[in-house]
Amino acid sequence: MTRGRFITFEGGEGSGKSTQAGRLAERLRAQGLEVLLTREPGGSAGAEAIRQLVVNGEGERWSPLTEVLLMFAARNDHLERTIRPALAAGHWVICDRFADSSRAYQGGGGGVPQSFIEQLDRTVVDDDQPDLTLIFDLPVEEGLERAFGRGLFETRFESKGLAFHERLRHTFRDIAARHPERCRLIDARGTEDDVAGRVWSTIEAALPLPEVQA
Ligand code: TMP
Questions:
Q1: Fewer CB within 10 Å: N-end or C-end of the chain?
Q2: What CATH class has 6-206?
Q3: Is the pTM of this model over 0.85?
Q4: Distance, CA 54 to ligand 1 centroid (Å)?
């Protein structure tokens, strides 16, 4: 059985990545592929329980270091129970956020040393690095306006200040620049269809689709 492909979607708040992850999953299924659409923090029963701890409550409920440990605990469960079995079964896995969110939110945004995050990543993610990471890039005010418009501003991370979100964007762009073999920056401005078109051309260029029997 050929191992499936692992694609992660990353970006700041209101970047539209979750909608686009859903659209890509549908499009790949229409090509005959088995696709698992999942998310972080979450994607397994244990990781969804941890999600409730990290996304709810006061902005300062957890220190960034505690937060990154919770994120990697959730990620470990998600990998063990959901992602690795799906890849081994030959399914394509699309994950809405993954380890780059820890690098951006807890590292760039929260000040946890990137060297510590890399250490956790080597132990938890190990060889199961994403084949491709799409980083949705949008001016911070635009993203927060979109998130605010959806009434989503009540989550802990969205309630953090503008400077925090600027650091996030900077870190995501920096990750994209430092890992061109894995990451592609997607311009998230414009209509949903515009962005879906950019996503699809990026997928086609980066990951050749297998011949699938109808
Ligand atoms: P979501 O809003 O995209 O569902 O993600 C939930 C929040 O969790 C989001 O504000 C970003 C945050 N997050 C981190 O801070 N670190 C991480 O490693 C992950 C996966 C998410």
A1: C
A2: alpha beta
A3: yes
A4: 8
